[in-house]
Amino acid sequence: MRRLFLKGLLEDEVTITGDDAQHLMYAMRAKAGDEVVLVDDTGAVGRMELTGFTADSVTMHLVERLEADTEPPIDLVLAQCLPKGDKLELIIQKAVELGAIAVQPLASRNCVVRYDAKKAAAKQKRWQKIAEEAAKQCGRTRVPEVLSVRPLADWLKQPAESALLFCYENEDQQPIKAVLRALPEDVHRITVLIGPEGGFSLPEAAAITEAGGQSVTLGPRILRAETAAIAAMSIVQYEKGDL
Predict the structure, then answer these.
(1) Residue closest to 20 by CA, chosen among 53, 47, 46
(2) How do 163-167 and 214-217 pair as beta strands?
(3) Mean pLDDT for the stretch of residues 79-105
(4) DSSP 8-state assignment for residue 139
(5) Dihedral Cα 47, 142, 90, 85, nearest 10 deg
(6) Other beta carbons within 10 Å of 203
(7) Quick one: average pLDDT of 77-96?
(8) How, if at all, do strands 45-53 and 57-66 pair?
(9) Is-contact 69 89, C-beta < 8 A?
């Protein structure tokens, strides 16, 4: 069944408008009696029967509430330095599928891609839409947030709220598995930081370490930025019991 996210609370009767309503009526050609899954702002999930249509809205009735929490036991954040082309779109899609709660795009020294404020805002809007569609497809009960692009140096100044792991090839690293297993049991938020195609500069690596980042390796081979992001998130989720 099609999964939709409701801005509000799940009630016995719900009316939706906007893109989701248009998609149901004109792309899916939905009709009365069809069913969808609706997730509200609190993560409550319901099986809904479509009951009525107007030119710009769809009304539906709650058939049953579902126990369908698909969120991981930890808060996983992906901080991704901007890769070339449209690679970030794939990375965001896979981050959502792997249970990330947020994606933070970053601009670092070796990023080839550069956005002005207008372009960055347009990109963020598109990335958020990709995250929402991925959340619907994979059965999430929350839509991860894609944050606005920030300079890496500025982002590192924020107070540390989680364990920070970063992949860096120019120094002795610890295997990511060993670092994850050594984290205190009360750590429930992990940020994975991935560089662009050119990696991190020496000053950036020093700044990340000073901010509390731990340098980790994903193995003996050099991975592309998009591969590193997917591999690192998968390992974190496996070690923390979500895969």
Answers:
(1) 53
(2) parallel
(3) 96
(4) T
(5) 130
(6) 10
(7) 96
(8) antiparallel
(9) no
Any idea how long the chain is? 243
For residue 9, with 0-12 CB atoms within 10 Å meaning exposed, 13-18 middle and 19 or more buried, which class applies?
Answer: exposed
- pTM for the model: 0.90
Q: Which two tokens stand for residue 154?
A: 């500025």
Q: Which of 153, 147, 148, 77 is nearest to 108 (CA)?
A: 153
Going by C-alpha positions, the residue among 67, 60, 22, 63 that lies closest to residue 44 is 67
Task: Supply φ then ψ for residue 195, to 5 degrees.
Answer: -80, 175
CB 85 within 8 A of CB 73: no
Residue with tokens 């996210």: 5
Residue pLDDT, tens place only, 143-171: 999 999 999 999 999 877 789 999 887 76
Q: What is the pLDDT of residues 190-219, one digit of tens each?
A: 999 999 998 999 999 999 999 999 999 998
Ranges of beta strands (E only) in 67-131 are 75-81, 100-107
**Eight-state DSSP code of residue 222:** P
Q: Which two tokens stand for residue 65?
A: 């509430």
Q: How many CB atoms lie within 10 A of CB 216?
A: 21
**Nearest CA among 181, 186, 167, 183 for reference residue 239:** 181
